[in-house]
Design goal:
The protein has 131 residues and is an alpha+beta fold. The chain has a single domain (5-128), classed as HIT family, subunit A. It is built from 3 helices and 5 strands. A 5-stranded antiparallel beta sheet has the order 1-2-3-5-4. α2 packs across α3 (117-128). The longest helix has 21 residues, at 55-75. The radius of gyration is 14 Å and the shape is globular. 34% of the residues are buried. The model has no long low-confidence stretch (mean pLDDT 95).
């Protein structure tokens, strides 16, 4: 029985601003982003630790993340899109895709932004236009 917060998003038991989806992966906006466009990419299958994914799952997640990152880069003004793996807050493998102007944009120790549901919906639509 899958029970992580992210598995509940996959099952549509709780809402999320989904940016992209395929058979194996899901990308959605972080509800407390470090910067505008901060997106989480997960395998649909619940596995706690990223490096416990089998090679095919890992490669699928990275290829999907690349596609989403390219759309974020096109939609959100930034120099680059950074990728970070932390994995301590939710026991479900995931990567953070973060639009960067400076290295400080990827500082997980800083206060996260509080944004409205409408703002998140607008950002998700902007990114989706490039997928």
């Amino acid at each position: 029985m899958a029970n992580s917060l992210f598995s509940k998003i996959v099952a549509r038991e709780i809402p999320a601003h989904i940016v992209a989806e395929n058979e194996h992966c899901l990308a959605f906006l972080d509800v407390f982003p470090l910067v505008e466009g901060h997106t989480l990419v997960i395998p649909k299958k619940e596995v706690d630790y990223l490096f416990d994914l089998d090679d095919a799952q890992y490669q699928a997640l990275m290829a999907f993340s690349k596609r989403v990152a390219q759309a974020i880069h096109a939609a959100i003004p930034c120099r680059k899109v950074g990728l970070s793996v932390v994995g301590l807050e939710v026991p479900h493998a995931h990567v953070h895709l973060i639009p960067l102007q400076t290295i400080g944009d990827m500082n997980f120790g800083k206060e996260k932004h509080r944004v409205s549901d409408d703002q998140l919906a607008e950002v998700a639509l902007r990114i989706q236009q490039y997928l």
